[in-house]
Amino acid sequence: MGFTIEDMLTVSGNHYKMNLIAGKGGWSNSISWLLMLEDIKIIQNFSGKELAVTTGLGFPSEDSLRILTEELLIHHASGLIVNTGYYIESIPASVISFCDENDFPLLTVPWDVVLADMIKDLSIRIFLQGSADEQISAALIRAIEQPDARHLYLQDLLPYFDTDGSFQVLLLHRPGLDEMDTVERRRLSYRIQLYLSNITHNGHFFYYDSRFVLVVNALPVAQVEEIVHLFYRNLARRMPSHHFTVGIGSRVKDIANLHRSYRRAISALRMAADRNQQVQWFDRMGIHRLLYSVDDRDLLYELCEVPLGPLLSYDEKHNANYTDTLELYLKYNGSIQAVASEMFTHRNTILYRMNNIRELLECQLETQEERLPYQIACMIRRMKR
Predict the structure, then answer these.
(1) Do residues 213 and 234 share a domain?
(2) What is residue 228's predicted lDDT score, i.e. its pLDDT?
(3) Given the DSSP bridges, would you call strands 50-54 and 79-84 parallel, antiparallel or unpaired?
(4) Domain for residue 11, yes or no?
């Protein structure tokens, strides 16, 4: 997940006397670059994940410092470092409160710290981590595409992951993602990474095959659920017009099985998109796990159109809804009253339809064995093809 606020405090906090005084919920924010800032105009050009540094020269008042933090938050900065002791003696309580409420990291370094040295040091660390991230992304893609060729990816991943431990893939997608140019997509990627709270070196985020991919390592289900919850909370707060769908694959053991979690995440993503859901877990899809994992579209067509063919033809010719009636009949395990209630239709009408449906199908639909092919066919019918 790149070089983060946590990393910065760990490797350089003591040396530069850094103090995280607010926005501790953003400790996992990754940093794309450090920028010296004494005027808010430059913020308009931020791409995302920039860490701003200021002496306070351009923000001497409480209001101006508050406006600075608001603008940085709007433009998806990673955080703010204030060089205190000359232009700004202490951080106003209102600014601290704002940063805490929005999980926006606010740090201070004392006036005797040489900012040029600090920025140079941290920028080198960010660059090196960025190069490492590219190497990790490439290795994970090789693990997905060529799982049996462990020599192509294992050595590159060993320094960063428990490769014998558990892995889980989360896929994030929104319409038009693959149509964006590289710069626009990178900017969106930076913002999304800021919304994936509470994850640093136990996960890795990258773009692959028209989707954003988050691979997590050795995380319990409860923590993954929290990550997804916070992602949607942050998305609603800061980019309410963007609608993402998340598909979550199975938790698998060993990096060699990463491809299984990835493929299952694709299936979960497809089901979520079909049903207009924000998020879908593959392991919670029931029998749909099987249907959404089938790549043979002709087979799915046969399993749907052949059993339901007589009803589909009748509905089209007579402008009827026999297929929908059968689907509800199977859903409610043969309860005529339940079907009538959902369709706002008299039960005698439903009885009449079901008699005709049995004749058209040449099946009495009495046993589970008789009903199963039609249940599967109705499920497939609801899948977008």
Answers:
(1) yes
(2) 95
(3) parallel
(4) yes
- The 3 state secondary structure assigned to 100-162 is HHCCCCEEEEECCCCHHHHHHHHHHHHHHHHHHHHHHHHHHHHHHHCCCCHHHCHHHHCCCCC
Residues 6 or more apart whose CB falls under 8 angstroms from that of 249 comprise 168, 169, 170, 171, 260, 261, 262, 263, 264, 265, 266, 268, 282
What is the pLDDT, as a whole number, of residue 240? 87
Distance separating alpha carbons of residues 66 and 256, to the nearest angstrom: 49
Tokens coding 232: 């949607």
Residues lower than pLDDT 70 in the chain: 1, 200, 384-385
Predicted pLDDT of residue 13? 87
Whether residue 362 lies inside any domain: the answer is yes
Amino acid letter, residue 235: L
For 157-172, the pLDDT digits (tens) are 999 999 999 999 999 9
Domain range for 35 is 5-123
